[in-house]
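FAQ: What does the model actually see?

It sees only this:
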Amino acid sequence: MIRILALAICIAAPASAQVLDGDGFDAYVSGKTLTFAQPDGTLFGVEAYGPDRSVTWSAAPGLCQTGRWFDRDGLICFTYNTDPLPKCWTVTRTERGLRAQSTTGTVLFEATEAQVPLVCPGPDLLS
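And it is asked to produce this:
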């Protein structure tokens, strides 16, 4: 209940929110593994941010996609080996963490920072 309330408060994008450019996003996520949730608190997935803007995304345990992120026209965009079409987001840093809104309207919030690495099959992941 508290998490849902916190997420509802974040939807309004507090006055202290800061839209992140590529450098700001890189400084915030580099070396982290973050869990993202939808506004209702439903977990959406986990993403690990590696060196040189590499990412590993998992929407379900053990199912991972590798890719890269880049900044373009004020957006943070992701491409994955299994889907090379860019998925772009406006990413805002709030007092409670990241808020991301896709160009298609999906809104996600940083729920937690994982304290353990993302577990993915290897070495080919989902080839």
